[in-house]
């Protein structure tokens, strides 16, 4: 399994698996006990960075450690690090660049998979708090109709809108 072919296969499998890892981390850590960092991503902010970016630092440190192990004679660890890093690159381009336009990537998709991805993530941000959100993946988006139904069934958005009207406030942009 330490041939170039085997290592590339491992890296690609890790890349694919990272979407599941990211989904679980997003749903159960970022919207769970790690909300203190992730909350900044759901609120308006000034500047280039937000506290949520610390998650990228944590994953980067993990990948760097695996690259070091790979360089120390454990090539499979290096392949895992390569898969994680590739996923991180795609996350940066798609999530930070395309969806949130945090860098000069001013393309708004009007059809296909990428449009669905942007719509699904916007639906994720339709909920103000950490409860009642939908679509926790970053590179996979469930069908928008399914997400709309989940939001309607949960009633969270409607309840938040009613609470804002009662308080006389408007929802801040995220």
From TrEMBL:
Belongs to the sterol desaturase family. The lineage of its organism: Bacteria, Pseudomonadati, Pseudomonadota, Alphaproteobacteria, Hyphomicrobiales. It comes from Aureimonas altamirensis DSM 21988. This is Beta-carotene 3-hydroxylase. The chain crosses the membrane at residues 6-25, 54-70, 76-94. Residues 12-139 form the Fatty acid hydroxylase domain. Keywords: Carotenoid biosynthesis, Membrane, Oxidoreductase, Transmembrane, Transmembrane helix. Pfam families: FA_hydroxylase (PF04116).
């Amino acid at each position: 399994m330490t041939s170039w072919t085997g290592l590339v296969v491992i890296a690609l499998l890790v890349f694919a698996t990272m979407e599941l890892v990211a989904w679980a981390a997003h749903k159960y850590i970022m919207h769970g006990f790690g909300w203190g960092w992730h909350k900044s991503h759901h609120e308006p902010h000034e500047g280039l960075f937000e506290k949520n970016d610390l998650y990228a630092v944590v994953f980067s440190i993990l990948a760097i450690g695996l690259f070091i192990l790979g360089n120390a004679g454990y090539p499979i660890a290096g392949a895992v690090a390569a898969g994680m890093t590739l996923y991180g690159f795609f996350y940066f381009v798609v999530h930070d660049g395309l969806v949130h336009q945090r860098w000069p990537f001013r393309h708004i998709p009007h059809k296909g998979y990428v449009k669905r991805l942007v719509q699904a993530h916007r639906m994720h941000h339709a909920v103000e708090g950490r409860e009642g959100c939908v679509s926790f993946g970053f590179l996979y988006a469930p069908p928008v109709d399914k997400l709309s139904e989940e939001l309607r069934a949960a009633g969270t958005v409607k309840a938040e809108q009613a609470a804002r009207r009662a308080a006389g406030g408007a929802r801040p942009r995220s």
